[in-house]
Design goal:
Elements (H helix, E strand, L loop, with lengths): L11 H19 L7 E2 L1 H29 L2 H27 L6 H23 L9 H26 L25 H22 L6 H24 L7 E2 L1 H65 L4 H25 L7 H13 L5 E7 L7 H22 L3 E8 L4 E7 L14 H11 L3 E7 L3 E8 L1
Parallel strand pairs: 3-4
Antiparallel strand pairs: 1-2, 4-5, 5-7, 6-7
């Protein structure tokens, strides 16, 4: 999967998540009417199952990205997510099932230490995200999975050996909203672990939100946003460790939000991946058509042009007619070459550059100057929209050169809240809009704009040039 590092991440999303999470936590503890406590061990099991699935899918996806980008940060994030998987499965779900749905010291301490390790790995991932690894892909994949298992084993073995002497995090039957429950409540050492975990998750969220090369534009934003929820969940568990009780409370809800945001990021990244596969297939087909045009139609047109020039010299009496044919063949050859050039361009080229290139394919051969104006930054567009704008720019330039004989062609691009606009203006002879000699060019441009979901308007006066406006909402 190709990286998507050229787009800036919307840093406002993690900030919004932080504000909402803090407001939710404050309400859960201080507003008595805001009751989110629910006694249900099966619900705990469901949340951790979702977490294991989210960590596995996101980890596999990031491991696939890392195999392409060789990004050290992505390998470490994948390792942290695999640790999350083994934490949920082997520290929470399996021990709880073996203990007949009761909490154990092994679960309490093992999962707390595992989350601390996950947070530390994510911080390191953010710190080394600019580094590239040179080892083979297979070796890096094996190391990622192996390190995840070894980290789990390094926690599980000593915790299992000391489980009989370690205290439980909380009385599993204790309600977080009972009047007799002291808040904060729990083991002092585990509270310290949770506070440290929360600090590391928050630092990792900040580091990853400022890195544009870890996780891609979509999964990266989901990861940094989800880590905000994970940090707040750890803070809530420090106040009341409901993760190890029969009660689902604010920390569990925030942890579940982390898992859901991670799954949403995975879905968005997969959607982008399949769209890129489709674009690659379309580009390959376009290149095949370009090769066929170059080897077939363009070669035949070039031969016709040469032969017609020979005929013009052989029979002067027919030189005017032959020259007309020669001009037509030259134009057809230029159109074929322009189509070949357009078909071989990448689908994601910048709109401004693409429109300029499409117009210059025509005007450079006719001595017309072109001026471009970009209001703001170059706007984004789908491949279908880009193709429509490029072809409209090409057709507008062609019509201007053939019928208006301008000296200057101006291309203006602008994006605002209403939509995106392309304006093409020439200083040629123009024409009366009621004229029946407009041909198929204008119809084609209108159809292309409509097919892209936009509209095209035309303004022209005889002797004053022509202006074509394309609006995409």
């Amino acid at each position: 999967m190709q990286p998507d590092s050229n787009r800036e991440r919307p840093s406002s999303i993690p900030a919004m998540a932080l504000a909402l999470g803090i407001a939710f936590s404050v309400c859960a503890y201080l507003v008595s009417a805001f009751d989110v406590a629910y006694e249900s061990t099966p619900l705990h099991i469901g949340i951790e199952t979702v977490g294991a699935f989210a960590g596995l899918t996101a980890g596999v996806l990031l491991l696939g990205r890392a195999a392409e980008t060789r990004n050290a940060g992505e390998y470490l994030v994948a390792t942290a997510l695999f640790v999350l998987v083994v934490e949920n499965l082997f520290f929470l779900l399996l021990p709880t099932a073996l203990a007949n749905a009761h909490a154990t010291a092994f679960s309490d301490w093992g999962s707390s230490l595992a989350q601390l390790v996950e947070a530390a790995l994510l911080v390191i991932a953010g710190a080394v995200s600019e580094r590239r690894l040179t080892a083979s892909r297979r070796l890096l994949v094996v190391l990622t999975v192996s390190v995840s298992v070894l980290l789990w084993a390094g926690i599980a073995v000593p915790v299992h050996a000391l489980a009989g002497r370690l205290p439980l995090a909380v009385d599993e039957t204790l309600s977080p909203v009972a009047a007799s429950t002291a808040i904060p409540h729990g083991s002092g050492v585990l509270e310290g672990l949770r506070i440290a975990t929360a600090a590391l998750f928050a630092l990792a969220a900040w580091l990853l939100s400022t890195r544009r090369n870890v996780g891609g534009a979509r999964l990266g934003v989901a990861l940094s946003t989800g880590l905000v929820a994970a940090a707040l969940a750890a803070c809530n568990f420090a106040v009341f460790p409901s993760l190890y009780s029969q009660w689902v409370f604010s920390g569990d809800i925030l942890q579940f939000c982390f898992y859901i945001v991670l799954l949403v990021g995975v879905g968005a990244e997969m959607h982008l991946y399949w769209r890129r596969l489709l674009e690659a297939a379309v580009l390959e087909e376009r290149r095949r058509i370009a090769r066929d045009l170059h080897d077939g139609l363009a070669q035949e047109l070039a031969l016709i042009a040469v032969r017609v020039q020979e005929l013009a010299g052989a029979d002067p009496r027919e030189s005017e007619a032959v020259q007309a044919i020669a001009s037509a063949s030259d134009r057809a050859l230029a159109e074929a070459r322009s189509a070949i050039s357009a078909l071989t361009e990448p689908l994601d080229r910048a709109v401004a550059r693409g429109c300029l290139r499409s117009a210059r394919d025509v005007i450079d051969q006719n001595g017309v100057r072109v001026r471009t104006e970009l209001v703001g930054s170059d706007f984004d567009a789908t491949p279908e929209e880009r193709e429509a704008l490029f072809r409209i720019a090409h057709e507008a330039a062609t019509n201007a050169v053939r019928h208006g004989r301008p000296t200057v062609l101006r291309i203006r691009l602008r994006a605002d809240r209403a939509g995106r606009r392309l304006r093409i203006v020439d200083n040629g002879s123009g024409f009366a809009l009621g004229s029946p000699t407009r041909g198929f060019g204008l119809v084609s441009m209108r159809e292309r704009a409509s097919a892209a979901g936009g509209r095209l308007t035309l303004r022209s006066l005889a002797g004053l040039g022509t202006a074509i406006d394309v609006f995409l909402p």
